[in-house]
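Table S2 (continued). Query chain:
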Amino acid sequence: MAPRARKIASFATISGEREVVSQKQGRQLMLRGCLLSTAIVDANARTLERTVYDLGFLQLDSINSVDRAHHLILHTRIDGYSPPMLARLAEKKRSLFEHWTHDASMIRSDWRHWWSHRFVAARERLHKSAWFQGQLGRNGNACIEEVRNAIRHHGPLMARDFPRPPRAAAGWWDWSPQKSALEYLWRTGEVAIHSRQRFDKVYDLAERVYGDAVLHPPREELVHWACSEALMRLGAATPRELVQFMHAVNIKEAKDWCATSTASGNVLRVLLERGEGKCIEGVARIDWKKRAALQSPPLPARLLAPFDPLIRDRARALDLFNFDYRFEAFVPAAKRRYGYYTMPVLAGDQFVARVDLASERKEGVLRVARIWKEPSVGVRTAKRDAHAACERLAHQLGFRAELPKSVD
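Corresponding output:
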């Protein structure tokens, strides 16, 4: 049977021969950049900090059905990890700070000066937002000043430390004016997350939390930094994927960076093989071939958090791994295909199953409701790897696993 012709989608005029990063090589690059094809490390302060710094940031999530997503990301990569270790790194050593990437995240602190551009953009956006101004109330500027002064004079405060004026509820994002003011001050960089209490934010002045004022590097330096850091971890990517990595730049800036960097020889212009015989134009690290060929040590099957770096870009996960994943916690139960909190099972460079599970903390049980095998995987393999991955996570959480005997 003749091989399918590659379809090429281009973001720029193609000139000359391009090397092709195969789908398998793309998977290997992603796995290595996400620390999923390297040895699992034992937990201590140094390995934890190194892991987060190598990833760049951890996406935060409040849902605690199994454990919070940022902890699950670390459980996957570090044996013996426990949540207080991350709190010490963020709240005592101040190696991490909280703000936005593509979503709310815990970010390496030596990157904080790059966030000055986000602070400025947030200020402009929130001033223009009719919804946000409505949340602040009629005297928005006065409310912000009131909250700013309260933190300055009283030290770290939470939203609940401010009285909430009575008003009709307006849904999930019905913030009080003071809560809205705290969010404004945080998003614009005036205050920082000092700590967390039961996952609720405790705010303090940024200068008291981190000391030095944030510098404001030129925009072109930000673009070069953001695209370089993204490509370092992705290995090979399209301009869209560089943007999606942490939403620090726009698509035009990413395309211009790709053109400039390939012209200067700092990165390579390549074709990226994705699903269904499709090739799309992108860029790759200079060392992509060597990196994609590196051998991995023997690794156990592992569960991935819904917002793990490997799968949080759903389109990329589908293109590289032929894995169609949707987080269904916010989908009505009757419309879910799988479950409320479904985690994929990764074995080697392949997704073999997905499991619907929850932590029963009082009983000390990780209860797995159902296991679904992936289409290309046999039942016996899917069951073996899913059970092993669930047993590993249960051990990490200090629970015992209750597993179904059958696989769907």
